Amino acid sequence: MKVVFAFAVFLLAAAAVEEKRQLVGICVEECSMALSDSTIMAALGVKQQCPDGHVCKSNGCGHTCQPVTKTTIPTKSQCSGVMCAMFCIDGFQLGPDGCPICRCATKPLPTLVVS
């Protein structure tokens, strides 16, 4: 009888744990994406929903005020990639324009100081 009672308690505990995993949370709607454009809001005389330095973004479940992240657009390199069919341990030499050329760079030989 004790074994059956212990087994029943174990099954109830396992079912309760499984039930907690399936609970659905509440999505926070701190701000609205429809009114997130500050130029529209300023024209309408509406205060911004998010404090300065923050913008309304989706967090995967609702919308919250998140810090503004600055994205940088990579600039095109003045040098094109080196298309050599060889491997250079010390890298490639640089041409007069500062771009790599298809020649292996060499390390300077160490100098020995004799005293």
From TrEMBL:
Occurrences of domain Antistasin-like (ranges): 79-104
Residues spanning the signal sequence: 1-16
The keyword Acetylation is assigned to this record: no
GO molecular function, one term: serine-type endopeptidase inhibitor activity
Keyword Transcription regulation appears in the UniProt entry: no
Superkingdom field: Eukaryota
The name this protein goes by in its record: Antistasin-like domain-containing protein
Organism phylogeny: Eukaryota, Metazoa, Spiralia, Lophotrochozoa, Mollusca
